[in-house]
Amino acid sequence: MRISAKGRYALRMLLDLAEHQHDGYVALKDIAERQNISKKYLEQIVPILNKSDILRTTRGFQGGYRLAKSPEKYTVGEILRLTEGSLSPVACLEYDPVGCERRVDCPTLPLWQGLYRTINEYLNGITLQDLLDQQRERYANDYVI
């Protein structure tokens, strides 16, 4: 499994919005500058996030984006599934029930199912707030005398 730029950038965008949630609506150009991501690329990600009601939007001079809910309500797993589709490590697990004709006799199916379960449990156990807290803790311990 490999997470694409779309998934990584969506996560960074939402993390930026979580970090600036008290600033009101945030312009896409500001996120792009802070995250060093092309504004055009972010414009391609926004419709995916808008369809899922993760973002609130407003237009006009003070327009921009903000999270629809608080950062602890969004898991990394949820965000990556929106942008990446399935997080399955193998194609046969992308559908339930398993669509592979070898599923009954496949000696590796339990291995892939365990990996898939582990991936989902891990990513579903981390929220945007957790990432913010980790970032703040890292910066708080990064000082020079």
Query: If you average the pLDDT, what whole number results?
Result: 90
Largest sheet data: 2 strands, antiparallel
N-C termini distance = 42 Å
- In which range does the helix fraction lie? 40-55%
Overall 3D shape: globular
Q: Strand-residue fraction?
A: 5-15%
Structural class: mainly alpha
Helix and strand pattern: HHHEEHHH
**Poorly predicted runs:** none
Strand adjacency order, main sheet: 1-2
Q: How many distinct helices?
A: 6
Count all strands and give the number: 2
Cα-based radius of gyration, to the nearest Å = 18 Å
3D structure, described in words:
- With 145 residues, the chain is mainly alpha-helical.
- It is 51% helix and 6% strand.
- Strands 1-2 form a two-stranded antiparallel sheet.
- A hairpin with a 5-residue loop joins β1 and β2.
- The longest helix has 16 residues, at 109-124.
- The mean pLDDT is 90.
Index terms:
two-stranded antiparallel ribbon; 145 residues; mainly alpha; 51% helix; 6% strand; 6 helices
TL;DR of this structure?
This protein is mainly alpha-helical and 145 residues long. It is 51% helix and 6% strand.
Helices and strands, with pairings:
Blueprint: H1 5-19, H2 28-35, H3 39-51, E1 55-58, E2 64-67, H4 76-84, H5 109-124, H6 128-140
Antiparallel strand pairs: 1-2
